[in-house]
Amino acid sequence: MVPTSLPPLRSSNVSSTPSLSPLSSFSMYTSSSSLSSSSSSFCFLSSKPSYRPCSLRVNINKTHLRTSSKSKGLKVNCSVKSEQLKVMISGAPASGKGTQCELIVQKFGLVHISTGDLLRAEVSSGTEIGNKAKEYMNAGRLVPDEIVTAMVKARLSREDAKEKGWLLDGYSRSATQVQSLEELKIRPDIYVVLDVPDETLIDRCIGRRLDPVTGKIYHLKNFPPETEEIRERLVTRPDDSEEKVKLRLEIYKQNAETILSTYSNIMKKIDGNRPKDEIFAEIESLLSEVQKDKEKLKLGKPTSGNDSLLNQSSSSQDNWRGIPTRLNNIPHSREIRKYFYNDVLQATQRAINDGRTRLKVEINIPELNPEMDVYRIGTLMELVRVVALSFADDGKRVKVCVQGSMGEGALVGMPLQLAGTRAILEFMDWGDYGAIGTFIKIGSIGAKDVDEQDDMFILVAPQNAVGNCIIDDLRVMTDAAGKRPVILINPRLKDLPGSSGIMQTMGRDKRLEYAASFESCYFFRLLYYAGTQYPIMGAIRMSYPYPYELYKRVDEPSGKEKYVALSTFPKRPNPDEINDAFIGKPRNQTKKASGIWGFLSSIF
Ligand code: AP5
């Protein structure tokens, strides 16, 4: 079957190394070598396909820059074991992070990376880092970012953290630290914040004692030591005086806002002013849910719709930074176009690297949607150019094909949206490096333009027209292409009436079956109320090999907008599934939609 459109919200027309326990705070048990910085580079860093900047002059420019070498830019290198849990825990001083981390590690086996513990270990060992850090810590101030960031990066890049997952405690604590992780594309699945009133925090710090032998955290009133022997050896942290705690608290509050804004979509605030087992029960349930969702995602099953999971699936995609806003502003800004070209390119890349050969890209932002009066053929050409040149950079000989005129006699012609396309392709700037005519050739859809030396084919918006069907030409072309990739960019292959006005029924099944044989490697569509193109209600995005992601567009009080992840789907969601996700209805529940969303579903 030809995939049908999505009508509910109408489209725009649509280790081996143990974790550092508090034990490591004390020199007698700490090996500084276990903490030494590793120079190993992060596997998170991917070589990203280069985008060649282009400005639009009738959308076709003369400033195409060819920067990447053939060997770089196309290999997707995202080797994080995404099914491992990645947790960040935060909260004011003495909010109970360390106490909860002990329990989390026992239950989930994550590698606990506590910057406080790492620093205390360096201080105890008298290392250069430790000597620098000591004065800041004892004063209750933050240690300089570069020291802490280098330690965290080194620790995160070690094998155990990659294999078992990690629990980051006490980092990030400043805008710069958040930025450092973002630049490395290191994002947690969930950001847990322990919320405790100030007066309780001060009391907890003043009463806190540490056991230098076991590393256990005690509190003189709340968790007194089990024996007199333990009590006698307990120590107080130098930064636990009332005055220093107040300063630490103030610094925490100054920075909390910035950090929260980065992780707001994966943040879970937990009341930390309860018995520790009660708090842990809540954390355990949250982490288990995230873990289950990650496993489901790995298997391509629907998830619970947990934001953290969506974030994880998307953040594991190279360079993906969320859906850009202002998509109804036409013409799209250069940044927005660049974003989508890159997004399409990476998805296509991954699919080709995985050996897929029959692919389609469907991208329906307003400028690429021929049903809207803001459709721009130049944007389509730019997209084709970015994709084609990137593959050419990798040494592939790419044939870019557009259908010629179809039909006979008075009926000869071509779909309006493609008028002039071939000429534009031939005239447009393909860069100063001689790609056109060598690595990139222009051809027609059909068997005759399939040459032996071609490595792959990009077909520009192949489409049926009333009276004429492109599918036969496509079929002979793909037959001739054999195992070489054929990528359809914005195809429109739905069945249309024959020239006589009578529906062609002969071979219809086969045509539909053929059209459906192309696998989606990229899909993007905005969602609107029926009959309107404003406001945007949400979006659906799929980037191979990840699941379909459903987003809701939200207006913020500041006047800005954002896209909030609602759910993921292994297959393209149908209207009911989209509506259910918008109203927050659990999956597999057959209740009829009500209120405004019920109205929507009835009109779609
Ligand atoms: P760090 O060790 O991270 O200190 P912190 O964030 O101030 O947190 P704490 O360790 O004081 O408290 P916690 O939340 O772990 O609470 P705990 O479980 O122990 O950092 C220390 C210093 O290192 C910083 O000041 C800074 O100088 C430097 N540093 C660290 N990271 C840095 C970074 N990223 N950048 C720059 N500098 C950095 O519990 C506290 C007490 O409460 C205990 O006695 C416990 O028994 C008790 N308690 C716990 N839970 C409960 C409960 N539910 N009910 C009753 N009592 C409880």
Taking the sheet with the most strands, its summary is: 10 strands, mixed
- How widely separated are the two ends? 20 Å
The gross shape turns out to be elongated
* Percent strand: 15-25%
Structural class computed from helices and strand pairing:
alpha/beta
Residue stretches low in confidence (pLDDT < 50, at least 5 long) are 1-82, 307-319, 589-604
Average pLDDT reading:
77
What hetero molecules are bound to the protein chains?
BIS(adenosine)-5'-pentaphosphate
Please give the share of residues in helix: 25-40%
Rg, alpha carbons: 29 Å
How many helices? The count is: 18
How many β-strand runs? 17
Can you describe this structure in just a few lines?
By secondary structure, the chain is α/β, with parallel strands linked by helices. The protein contains 18 helices and 17 strands. It is elongated, with a radius of gyration of 29 Å.
